[in-house]
Specification:
Largest sheet: none
Helix content: over 70%
Order of helices and strands: HHH
Shape: elongated
């Protein structure tokens, strides 16, 4: 069974699939650059959440987790950008 038989309206289906795979790989490479920033933003959100909420008992857990995520995101951002540029 040929692709032309399965998809008669797409004679170049293999070309379209290869282009789609290439664009997915490019999107993954671009997202690697911003992974550290996303982790930092999650950590900052946790710190803001602990500030705005009135949870006195578990505030230190949110603050410590947010701090760890901000530091980890900072380091991931540095290491991935050096690895991508090299």
């Amino acid at each position: 069974m040929e692709w032309g038989e399965v998809f008669p309206y797409l004679p170049n289906y293999s070309v379209l699939c290869s282009q789609r795979i290439i664009t997915n790989i490019v999107h993954i490479i671009i997202m690697k650059q911003y992974l550290g920033v996303i982790v930092m933003l999650i950590g900052a959100f946790l710190q803001v959440f602990s500030y705005l909420s009135d949870q006195v008992e578990s505030a230190n857990i949110f603050l410590a987790t947010g701090l760890c995520l901000v530091i980890a995101g900072y380091l991931v951002h540095i290491f991935l950008n050096k690895k991508i540029e090299a």
